[in-house]
Amino acid sequence: MSKITISVPSSVANVSCGFDVLGFCLEKPCDEMTVEIKKSQGLDIEIINEKSIPTNPKENVCGAVAFAMIKKLNFKYGFKIKITKNIKPGSGIGSSAASAAGIAFAINQLTGNKFSKLELVEFAMYGEEIASGSKHADNLSPVIYGGFTLVRSLNPLDIITLPALEKLHVVITHPLIELKTKDARSLINKDIKLEKAIVQWANLAGFIASLYSKNYELLSKTIKDVIIEPQRIKLIPNYKEIVDGASKYALGSGISGAGPSVFSICNGAKNASLTLETIKKITDKKNINYNLILSKINTHGIKIMN
């Protein structure tokens, strides 16, 4: 096989209680990526639908991942990479992660599947470092593994797959502004009070327990962030009004990744539809445009299209 086309999904990271360690995969939106082996060395990158993304391989997240894999494989050829970008950069639903994870997956498929999913995440982290200034895997892991994932450790990398409850649906409220992860991370005060850390640890443990026990009431109690979100709320337009409105039907809401998108996790399609309708009544009155997305949890991750 010398050419592959894949569908690479979006994702939600942090999920309020699990900053930099917890994430889940969405069924939509998805990028479409075609990767083809070329006879000459180097990378040719083409981006459809998005002019803001650099195509210079040294500045593009795909380039960082591909070069690391080419070096490891001692590969004598190069790749043509074409991405139809449906996940908006700076949206908070894993745009850079989709590119990084997608190219790692595609190159692995084209070169004999020599790497495990864990190793693919390790390669993809080179791309996230380009995008955000640090290596993290909370978006990458669910895209590559599917469903919910927990990054237990970065060094050495250790990823735990978690149960994905069938009834869960998600509403994404995306204000059509760009918020770069680097900028959102720069606001964070790294000094944490012990009492707040204890609350956060307990919520993360409770969230994971709720997935295993299928306890939706417990899950609802744990979608809370007492450390990071309070520092970032000012970056998210109409955050409190949207979260308060969603609370009537959703199990819980929070900032998706670094923002500006807000996720609302719901028990069942009906509650998700009602949550979307409630949020739409709020956003329709605002002076900025919003994109509202309703998605199930994607349990398979990246899909091969050809």
Structure overview:
There is one protein chain. With 306 residues, this protein is α+β, with helices and mostly antiparallel strands. The protein contains 10 helices and 11 strands. Helix 9 (239-246) runs antiparallel to helix 10. The longest helix is centred in the middle third of the chain and has 20 residues, at 194-213. The chain is globular. The chain starts with a strand and ends with a strand.
Q: How is the CATH topology of the largest domain named?
A: Ribosomal Protein S5, domain 2
At the first level of CATH, what is the class of the largest domain? Alpha Beta
Integer-rounded radius of gyration? 19 Å
Class per helix and strand makeup: alpha+beta
CATH architecture of the largest domain: 2-Layer Sandwich
Integer tally of domains:
2
How are the SSEs ordered, and which strands pair?
Blueprint: E1 3-13, E2 22-38, E3 43-48, H1 61-73, E4 78-84, H2 95-110, H3 117-132, H4 140-145, E5 148-154, E6 157-162, E7 168-175, H5 181-186, H6 194-213, H7 216-222, H8 229-232, H9 239-246, E8 252-255, E9 262-267, H10 269-283, E10 290-296, E11 303-304
Parallel strand pairs: 3-4
Antiparallel strand pairs: 1-2, 1-11, 2-4, 2-5, 5-6, 7-9, 7-10, 8-9
